[in-house]
Write a structure and sequence with these properties.
Strand order of the largest sheet: 1-3-2
Order of helices and strands: HHEHHEEHH
Helix content: over 70%
Amino acid sequence: MAEMDIDKELAKLISDHMTEYVIAFAKIIDNEVSASQYFILQTIEESGPKTSSELAALLGVSLPAITNLTNKLETKGYVERQVMHEDRRNIRVMITAQGESIVQRMLNKHCKLSEILFTSFSPEEKERLAIAYRKMIQVLKLEAGMRAVEQDEAMEG
């Protein structure tokens, strides 16, 4: 198969996979949190407290949207805002024990979905797939970081 053909097929397969996974994910996500709220919880659970600006850049949404999302999470007791002592204007969003519980519950649901998804894969196929996913995620994170820098430069200029 020609390289261009395989690139197109991969793009289509990834698109199909993402669509099916999003549909399956929507079926497992709790009514308690939206996908965007879950992303916020997962992000701060994995990498620690973040400012609203950092979360907005990571999620690709506006500051008012992040404020709305974090307000809802705070009302539910899943996050709290922490004022930094060195600069009281600097406020970080941090996850609570209750928020960590939601992330763990969702991760358990993801694991069950993945078990179903990968039952027909051999251990070697799973390892090759994991390598490919790690590489794709690394590229996507690099691309997102480059876009964030470009946006910052555009706002400054």
